[in-house]
Amino acid sequence: MVDLRAEREAAGLTQARLAELAGIAPSNLSAYESGRRAASPAMIARIRRATVRPSDRLRAHRDEVARIVERNGGRNPRVFGSVARGEDTPASDLDLLVTVPPEAAWTFVSTGRELSELLGVHVDVVSEGGLKEKHRAILDEAVPL
């Protein structure tokens, strides 16, 4: 028997947050967890996908992420934020710092959307050229993809 409650708790998510991430009604998730309603194998897979951390998704698709960044004109992709610190949860987003030459700015615009679709998590892409001195912490914690 699948213990969805234990899996949710191991992922550090509330019922409400997991339901949101999985795109299901909180009442349905509650019914699945309590055994009042049986979850189909497809629903179990959907719920489990929502408990995966962005760092795990990035690890599984690192080469594809690098190809998308490069294809759109970016160079030197680096990770910062909770993923770089090893503190991400399934509810976290993925933050990328990229060097974008001025001539690639227009082609690079769609990169965040493409990466979000690939990874199934929100991806924020920040151009290194747009950082100010007050953003020094981003540069300091950024690690290569």
Automatic annotation (TrEMBL):
InterPro entries for the chain: Cro/C1-type_HTH, Lambda_DNA-bd_dom_sf, NT_sf, Polymerase_NTP_transf_dom, Type-VII_TA_antitoxin
UniProt keyword Metal-binding, yes or no: yes
Keyword Nucleotidyltransferase: yes
MF-aspect GO terms: ATP binding; DNA binding; metal ion binding; nucleotidyltransferase activity
Keywords, comma-separated and alphabetical: ATP-binding, Magnesium, Metal-binding, Nucleotide-binding, Nucleotidyltransferase, Toxin-antitoxin system, Transferase
Co-factor(s): Mg(2+)
Domain (HTH cro/C1-type): residue spans on this chain: 4-58
A Pfam family hit: HTH_3
PANTHER family referenced in this protein's UniProt entry, alphabetically: BSL3053 PROTEIN (PTHR33571:SF12), SSL8005 PROTEIN (PTHR33571)
Similarity annotation: Belongs to the MntA antitoxin family.
Identification of the protein by name: Helix-turn-helix protein
